[in-house]
Amino acid sequence: MTNAEVNILLGDCLAELESISMLIRGIGDEAKPTPYIKKYAVIRATGSIETAFKQIIADKIDEDSHVQVKNFIKRKVRDSSCNPKLGMIENMLTEFDDRWRSKFDELMALDDKPKLKGALTNLVDARNPLCQDSCRLSVRDLC
Q1: Contact 80, 28 (CB under 8 A)
Q2: Per the structure, how many domains does the chain have?
Q3: Of the four, 28, 47, 99, 106, which is 20 to 30 A from 133 by CA?
C-alpha cells in the first residue's frame, strides 16, 4: 500500500530536518538557540513518525468500513497518543491482523532492523522528557 499523504508528510519532515541541520551548522553548536532547535527537531521527527504509522493503519482499515468502525479507528488509532517505538508499531499491526505484522517483518528483514529499532528508541527517549517538562511549564516560566 502506498499512502501519498504519508509520503508527503515524511518528505516535508525530512526537508525540514535537513534545513535544521544546515541552520545548526551555520550558527554552531554553542549558539544559544541551538538546544531549542534540536529539541524541536526531535519532537518534529517523532511526531511525524507517529502520525505516519497511525495514518497508514487507519487508512487501510477505513477503506471499506462502516461508519461505526471508522469512528472507532478515529478514536483508538488516529487520535490516540503513542510512542512510535518499533514494538508499539508491531503490536498495533498484530492487533489488527497477524498477516500485517508478518508482512511488516518481511519488509523489516530487508532493512537493518536493529539500527531502525535503536533509532526509534533513541528519538522517543529524547522526546519524552521534553514533552513531560513542557507540560510542567507555566506562562511565568517562559517569560
Answers
A1: no
A2: 1
A3: 28
State the amino acid at position 136 in one-letter form: R
Residue type (1 letter), 72: F
* Assigned C-alpha cell, 84: 512510535
Residue 97's domain comprises: 4-142
Residues with Cβ within 8 Å of 37's Cβ and at least 6 positions away in sequence, in order, are 20, 23, 24
| Number of other CB atoms surrounding residue 88 within 10 Å | 15
As a whole number of Å, the CA-based R_g of the chain is 18
pTM for this predicted structure? 0.79
DSSP 3-state of 63: coil
